[in-house]
Amino acid sequence: MANKIEIISASLVPMATNANPISKLDPTPWDLLFLLLQPIQNGILFHKPESQELQISLINHLKNSLSRTLDFFPPLAGRFSTVKNDDNTTSYFIDCNNAGVEFTHAVAGDVSISDILEPKYIPEIVPSLFPLNGVRNYEGVSKPLLGVQITELVDGLFIACTMNHAVADGTSFWHFFNSWSEISRGLDKISKPPVFERWFPDNVPKDNPLIPLPPLELNWLQNIVPPPLLERVFHFSKESVAKLKAKANSEAGTTKISSLQALSAHLWRSVTRCRYEKSTDNLCGQEVNFVLIVGTVGSSPSSWAYVGLGPSPVGHLLQELNRQQQQQRIDSLQKRKNERGQQQKQKKKNVRQFSFQLCAVFINSADRGPFVVRFC
């Protein structure tokens, strides 16, 4: 396998109508955390059309449908913009200026689908199937926030997307991809329009939510050289996860261990054994770190609709916590109100009982005609 990619064409694709409903969007504090990180990259393999004419027609169709899809996702066709503040800080926002997304048509004439899927480890050519390689999220000031690359293989097509991670999360990524699929199939509108409403902490002004950031520490990025590690994708079937869960619960003598907990524990033990040459006897009492990134997108009915420009996963969580705290405060106030009401009722009741006792004593002690006692 020659591992050679030939770029046929590259262009910027704008929105089809430029009927932009929004002009700018302000990132949340959690979006800004991703500025120094790399973008999201995912791709899908497809069978190759039978003729060259169909291939060219398909690529043009994908390019046109991408443009129409951007009408529903204007921030993805924009760029990051910055505001220099007087205190040497910088604020970022998304300028929905329709600068366009990168669209690349490439050919890998010596690569087949089996060359990508069959190897034990991810082949070295796979990164070259994606656009905007090596671009950090903060570079969205001058680089596209979204890139698409269609690569012709010997017997297939690889459609790859690179999306700025400070703009969208994984759920939003696939929301866009599925929406593009709908427009490509001939629909005029997408089934689930994105929601661009933002959630900010209470201490961020609603009328000007720009968040000042100190100068980005870019020097340390240049000093980071990742080791030449091989990458591999693991797939755990439903049956294997069920076995892990049953084994974990059996060994612990419980039924409360979840599938995620059982799988996480299995990964932790496997990674730890690999790090320490399959022997963990000398690790007793030592701290062993293992980081596992798990999606935490909220389970609210509208969580699918956020294009990273709604609350991030952490934002969803904090929003829910904030909602719970507000509800707790409301419940606490209502409880105190009810308690005060009960206390006032009890006081009135005590006064009535006391008055009744006095009247009763007076009636019984006075050897006179009957009294009529009224309570208001």
Automatic annotation (TrEMBL):
Give one Pfam family.
Transferase
Q: Keywords of this protein's UniProt record, alphabetized?
A: Acyltransferase, Transferase
Enumerate the InterPro entries for this protein.
Answer: CAT-like_dom_sf (IPR023213), Sec_Metabolite_Acyltrans (IPR051283)
Signal peptide (residue range): none
**UniProt keyword Acyltransferase present:** yes
Indicate whether Transferase appears among the record's keywords. Answer: yes
A GO term for molecular function: shikimate O-hydroxycinnamoyltransferase activity
- For the protein in the UniProt heading, the enzyme class is transferase
| Annotated EC | 2.3.1.133
What this protein is called in its record is Shikimate O-hydroxycinnamoyltransferase
Cite the source lineage. Answer: Eukaryota, Viridiplantae, Streptophyta, Embryophyta, Tracheophyta
